[in-house]
Amino acid sequence: MPIALSMDVHPHPLPSRRRFGLVPVARRLAVIVLVFVAIVACLLLLVNAEMAIMTGVRAYIEGESYWSKNQKDAVFHLRNYATSHDPRDYDRYRAAILVPLGDHRARVELDKATPDLAVVRAGLIAGRNHPDDLGEMIMLYRRFGQVSYMARVIVVWREADRYLLKLDHAAARLHARVGAGQLDAAAL
Q1: C-alpha angle 40/43/45, rounded to 5°?
Q2: Which of 1, 47, 79, 111 measures 20 to 30 Å from 117, CA to CA?
């Protein structure tokens, strides 16, 4: 008669590591790699956002230099027109003033709750901003316009636009007087 040995043997015994809650090395390595990949992906997204912000800031700085130069040129040509009455000086004034007026149109449109991006883009192009920078410029204004540093810049821009519009109104009056032959020195 064969002797039966009685042992508590499971048909599929668990390895001792799993029994004590230990995860196999391959699984731990996969989790570490996934976490690392997620961190790298987040860093890439952050770098992409930072580059877009830097591009927008650079574009606004460059645009401000065009705005300033053309505004000064407009005043210079308008002063020349006031003394010379030469229509070419007025044409030079009009060409110079179009740059800050384009930026003005873009800013006014960007201040709206739902701006017409075609108007914004046309205004920024008239302001001699590079077409490749327009998306970042719009994003920067819309997303960060309420941040203290950007908000102060926008307030200064609005104030400068008020003077710009006064200058353009004075230029139109001057041009009308010169065209009508009203050339008295006090009016000019």
Answers
A1: 110
A2: 47
pLDDT in tens, 16-69: 555 555 668 888 888 899 999 999 999 999 998 888 888 888 888 888 888 999
Q: What is the pLDDT of residues 83-119, one digit of tens each?
A: 999 999 999 999 999 999 999 999 999 999 999 999 9
Structure tokens at 75: 């005043």
- The pLDDT score that the predictor gives to residue 121 is 96
Q: At what angle do helices 87-110 and 25-84 cross, to 10 degrees?
A: 150
CA distances from 25 to 17, 32, 33 (A): 11, 11, 12
| Burial 78-97, CB ≥16 within 10 A → b, else e | bebbbeebeeebbebbbebb
> Does the predicted TM-score (pTM) go above 0.85?
no
Instruction: Kindly give, in sequence order, each residue whose CB lies less than 8 Å from that of residue 62, ignoring residues fewer than 6 positions away.
Output: 129, 130
What does the block give as tokens for 41?
Answer: 């992906």
- Token pair 């987040």 in the structure block, residue: 42
| C-alpha to C-alpha distance for 142 and 160, rounded to whole angstroms | 20
Joined tokens for residue 2: 């064969």
Amino acid type, 151: A
